[in-house]
Amino acid sequence: MATPRRTVLISGCSSGLGLELAVQLARDPKQRYQVVATMRDLGKKEALEAAAGDALGKTLTVAQLDVCDDASVAQCLSHIQGGDVDVLVNNAGVGLVGPLEGVSIATMQSVFDTNFFGAVRLVKAVLPGMKRRRRGHIVVVSSVMGLQGVVFNDVYAASKFALEGFFESLAIQLLQFSISISLVEPGPVATDFEAKLLAQASTAEFPGTDPDTLGYFRDLYLPASSQLFRSVGQSPGDVARAIVKVIGAARPPLRRQTNARYAPLMALKALDPSGRLYVRTAHRLLFRWPGLLRFSLRCLACSCLPSRVRPRPE
Ligand SMILES: NC(=O)c1ccc[n+]([C@@H]2O[C@H](COP(=O)([O-])OP(=O)(O)OC[C@H]3O[C@@H](n4cnc5c(N)ncnc54)[C@H](OP(=O)(O)O)[C@@H]3O)[C@@H](O)[C@H]2O)c1
Description:
The protein is globular, with a radius of gyration of 20 Å. Helix 3 (70-78) runs parallel beside helix 4 (105-133) and helix 10 (276-288) crosses helix 11 (290-300). It has a domain at 6-196 and 234-259: NAD(P)-binding Rossmann-like Domain (Rossmann fold, 3-Layer(aba) Sandwich). With 314 residues, the protein is an alpha/beta fold. The chain contains eleven helices and seven strands. Residues 11-12, 14-18, 39-41, 44, 66-68, 91-94, 114, 118, 141, 143, 186, 188-189, 191-193, 196 line the site of NADP nicotinamide-adenine-dinucleotide phosphate (NAP).
């Protein structure tokens, strides 16, 4: 008898990683998945539907889901046959960059509402069913910024650190119910994410920020960030393929980084548990030796390096 398809619910499928992942899973050659690709605004479903092609209505359905809205989550789950989600992918997320003096607490809270509480809200909704069935897989699109702080990304990084702590803690309890958790940690990915951030950063005035800090942000950080995306950025397709592997694994990993070119930056933290090596190196590269930073990023982009972390045997 054929194995029943696993129902996969993904948040934030209007663009970027969520869209790519939904399409790759729906087009799985072994037809292992029934994908519920969700987005908060169904007015944006055209790109997903076009990319899904003939999988639309067969292995992929599109549904409305705003991760910040309890009623929307409940409504979405009520349409899933049997209400059972086998794999939940918490992908929806928003970025925020800029000097914190110029960002309101309400704006910071809205980042946590989406990135952290949005994921928690979905988990609370699907967990009782997973526990009852004693199986399930929760995948969280975290970030390298869930492991390592990055200048002028204070609030975004904090929201991803919060996810890392929450889901690592939950993973211990859920082993008892045979439910797996996987935190996927991409580096920069070439999606609308960066464009949205740059648009927000270039129009924001950051009131109350002193001129020195504003200058560092606009003249040093923003150009360096653009170069980082250009030099080590992965395609959403590559990251989605890494997530597909995690979902298909017999023993899913708790953590999976996707970008080998970002690994040297991550190594700075691992090499010195006091944190001094990473903070001082990042500070010097941005504020003292921006020429060296540009050169290092060009080296990281060199094609002699592998383009992504080699898959480990599952
Ligand atoms: N791009 C990167 O460099 C990068 C790196 C590491 C991790 N990530 C993470 O990857 C995930 C996907 O980002 P992406 O790069 O694919 O960016 P993206 O193209 O901007 O996609 C973000 C998605 O989240 C959705 N979203 C935002 N708020 C939502 C809400 N309240 N309810 C439901 N959906 C909501 C967006 O919908 P709308 O279209 O309605 O706004 C969009 O579909 C995020 O968690 C992000 O933090 C991205």
